[in-house]
Design goal:
By secondary structure, this protein is mostly helical. About 55% of the residues lie in helices and about 0% in strands. The protein starts with a helix and ends in a 15-residue tail after the last helix. Keywords: Membrane, Transmembrane, Transmembrane helix.
Amino acid sequence: MLGIAAAVLFFIAFLINAAEISTNHVFSSTNFMLIGLAVLALHVGGVASGWAARGRSRRR
């Protein structure tokens, strides 16, 4: 899910840059790319992946 969010942020950054939309400093294409990279790093790091890091114990 975070990978999709990163892709959306990269696409927004591309649109801002390609259309040369003048925005304030908060919504610049560079900031969207940096936020996208942070979200992508969280995705690669395994945050919110749904997998539990707990060890499985076998019961007999």
